[in-house]
Write a structure and sequence with these properties.
The protein is mainly alpha-helical. It has a domain of 60 residues: Arc Repressor Mutant, subunit A (Orthogonal Bundle), CATH 1.10.10. It has five helices and three strands. The protein has a three-stranded antiparallel sheet with strand order 1-3-2. β2 and β3 form a beta hairpin. It starts with 5 loop residues before the first helix and ends in a 5-residue tail after the last helix.
């Protein structure tokens, strides 16, 4: 039942690729070569030159933090920050509607101290 009929052989010949038997490697190398580097390296900072934390000293907002950084600062999970503390008024910046949340250390600390004083957590 697996015998090939002449009609099957004609179909196989008809659908055979028109690519050559031997690949032309010199031509194919340009097509498959990965692009190395960045399109706009001047817009992207180098990892060797990170922004020093000391450069944030004296600024009114402090250093920018991610939601994971805020969670570590408050001692909770990023989920808790997002679901509980944002609804309670934790200050944040969001550049566009579904964009990344940016927090500033001094604002987070001030918000936390204010809430602790309101709840009677710290007496001054």
């Amino acid at each position: 039942m697996n015998a090939r009929t002449p009609a099957m052989e004609d179909d196989a010949d008809r659908y055979e690729s028109d690519f050559g038997a031997e690949p032309k490697s010199a031509e194919n190398l340009e097509f498959s070569r990965p692009q190395v580097g960045q399109n706009c390296p001047q817009d992207c900072p180098h990892p060797e030159r990170p922004i020093a934390p000391s450069s944030w000293r004296g600024r009114p907002l402090g250093e920018p933090l991610t939601i994971a950084d805020v969670a570590a600062l408050l001692g909770c999970s990023p989920w808790t920050v997002r679901q509980r503390y944002l609804r309670q008024g934790l200050p944040f910046l969001q550049a566009r509607p579904r964009g990344k949340l940016i927090f500033f250390r001094e604002q987070v600390v001030a918000w936390t101290l204010k809430r602790q004083q309101q709840k009677g957590g710290i007496s001054q």
